[in-house]
Specification:
Largest interface: A-B, 52 and 53 residues
Distance between the termini of chain A: 56 Å
Shape of chain A: elongated
Structural class of chain A: alpha+beta
Oligomer: homodimer
Strand content of chain A: 15-25%
Largest sheet of chain A: 7 strands, mixed
Chain lengths: ~260, ~260
DNA sequence: ACAATAGTGTCTATGAGACATTATTGC
DNA sequence: GCAATAATGTCTCATAGACACTATTGT
C-alpha cells in the first residue's frame, strides 16, 4: 500500500471514500500518543487518600505519579482506564464508578512528545493493597492533605486538584459515596463520615439522616444492626445501597465550601 | 538522530533523562491524531440551535458535522478549540464560555485511523453569520429539535447529546445564560426566556425574578428600561451581568427534567 | 451509673410554587 | 379604554439548620 504525497485538498476531493483512505496516512502528522491516568480515591483512617506510583523509569524518574498507561489502538480510552484500574488495584470495574474527568493536551507536558492524557476518577470500595506494576517501583495511598510535600510527575498535581473537586461535587447528587465504604452494608453514621471526610466539614447528624432517608431508593434498610461499636454506644441500623440514580434533592455543601 | 530498537524496559532504565529521550521515538506507536470539536449553541427565533458544517470532503462527505479540526503540535487543545471558534464564527473567545465537554476515543470512530476528539461547548453571544471554511462547503445553525432528521458525521450525534445536557445543567449554577443574549443589557424576562428555551419548559415569571435577584452580584440594575416592546406592554428594567461566579442557590430544573 | 453513639421529634428560618394585584407601555 | 407585558406582594408548602430528648450499647 503506497502512500502518495497528496495535499489535504486533493485528498478530500477524492471521489470515493475508499480511494481517499487508500492515499491517507495519519503518520504524516507529528507523532502523538494518548494515555489514560487515574485518580483512585479511597478513605484510609478517616483521611481522603489517592493512589500514587513512584516512577521507576524515565521520564520523571523518582517522582510520584498517577497510575495510568498508553491507550492501545484496539481499545477505547475508557477500556484503558478500566484495564489500568484492574492492573494497579486488582479491582474489577463492574458496577463501580469510573468517570472521565478531563483531558490534558498541550505542548511540553511530557518530554517524550505530544502526549495527551485523559484523566479518570474512581472510588476504591475496598482498601486494596496495591502491588507494584511493570514500570512502577512502588505504589502507595497518600492522604490528599499531604500531597504538597510530594514532588509529583508531569502536571499530575493539577489533575488531582480537578479530580478532588469532581468527587466533592459529584457526591452531592450521585449515590456514589457508599463506594468508599468497604462493606456491602453500612450505617447512616458511616455514610455521614464519608461526606465529612470528603468535604472536610462536620455535618449535623439528624439533619443528614433526615435528608438521605428522604431520597427514594437511595438507602435500603436491612433488618440488622452493626454488631458492635469499638467503644460503646448504640449500634446503628444497617442499610445497603438502593437503585436510585440521583440524590434529589442534592446534599449540598454550604455556600462557603464552593468558591 | 538515530533511533535504536530498544525495548521499553531498557529505555526506562536509562541513567539520565537526556539519554532516554535520545533513544525514544513516539512514532513506534500506532499513529494517532487529536482533534477539537465544538458544540456552538445559540438561540435563534426562540429555538436552541447548534452550528453544523456540511462536510465537503472525505471522510463522511455530505454529512453534517460539528466544526472542529486537528490540534497542531505547537498548541494546546484548548487553543485549537478557541482557534476553530474564531475561524468558524469570527467570534473571539475572550471573556466568553468555552468549556471542555468530554473526550471521545475508541477504535472505529473515524475511518482515517485512531482519531481522538476532544469536544467543547460554547455559547454564541451574537447570532453571527457563519462563513464557509476550508473544507466546509456550508455552515448553518440547526434547531436541536430538528437534528434527528439530519445525517450526522462520525459520532457527533452522541457528542451533541452530551453537550446539550452539559449546557442545561451548567446554567443552573453558572451565570452563563446571559451569553445567549446579543445585547450587553437585558431584562429579566429576556433572561427567563433563555432558561425556558434551553430547558424546554415554562417558568413562573415572578418566582424566577425573585430567585435571580436574590443572587448577589449576578444581575446589576441599569438605570434604563427597554425602549419598546414590539406590541405594547410595560418595558422591563434593564440589567447587565455582574461579577458573581456562581448562582447560589442554583436555579434548579424540577425533578422531572432530570431523568 | 456513665460515656458514647444512634434514633426521633420540634421549632424556626429560608426557599420555592402558585397566584393575585398594581404599574406602564402601544394601539 | 384595552391588550400586553412588567413589577410587586402574599399565602402556603417544602426543605434546611439548630438543638433537645430518648434509646441502646460497652465499660
Amino acid at each position: 500500500m503506497t502512500k502518495l504525497p497528496l495535499t489535504d485538498k486533493a485528498l478530500a476531493a477524492m471521489e470515493t471514500e475508499e480511494e481517499f483512505l487508500k492515499h491517507y496516512d495519519l503518520k504524516k502528522y507529528p507523532a502523538q500518543a494518548l494515555t489514560a491516568d487515574l485518580c483512585i480515591f479511597t478513605i484510609i483512617k478517616g483521611e481522603l487518600s489517592i493512589l500514587l506510583i513512584l516512577r521507576g523509569g524515565h521520564p520523571e524518574k523518582g517522582k510520584w505519579a498517577l497510575p495510568g498507561g498508553f491507550v492501545n489502538v484496539d481499545e477505547s480510552v475508557d477500556q484503558t482506564a478500566a484495564r489500568e484500574l484492574k492492573e494497579e488495584t486488582g479491582l474489577a470495574f463492574e458496577d463501580g464508578y469510573l468517570e472521565q474527568l478531563k483531558t490534558y493536551a498541550y505542548p511540553g507536558r511530557d518530554p517524550r512528545g505530544y502526549v495527551t492524557s485523559v484523566a479518570y476518577v474512581t472510588l476504591a470500595p475496598k482498601i486494596s493493597v496495591p502491588k507494584a506494576g511493570d514500570d512502577a517501583a512502588e505504589a502507595q495511598f497518600f492522604p490528599v492533605k499531604e500531597l504538597n510535600s510530594l514532588t509529583l510527575a508531569f502536571d499530575h498535581a493539577n489533575i488531582i486538584e480537578d479530580g478532588l473537586e469532581r468527587v466533592r461535587a459529584k457526591i452531592e447528587y450521585a449515590p456514589i459515596a457508599p463506594l468508599f465504604i468497604p462493606d456491602e452494608t453500612f450505617t447512616i453514621s458511616e455514610l455521614r463520615k464519608v461526606y465529612e471526610t470528603v468535604w472536610g466539614v462536620s455535618l449535623n447528624r439528624s439533619n443528614f439522616r433526615r435528608k438521605v432517608q428522604a431520597v427514594p431508593d437511595f438507602l435500603i434498610p436491612i433488618d440488622r444492626k452493626r454488631v458492635s461499636n469499638f467503644d460503646g454506644g448504640r449500634p446503628g441500623d444497617l442499610y445497603r445501597i438502593g437503585s436510585a440514580q440521583f440524590i434529589y434533592p442534592p446534599l449540598r455543601r454550604s455556600k462557603e465550601e464552593l468558591d
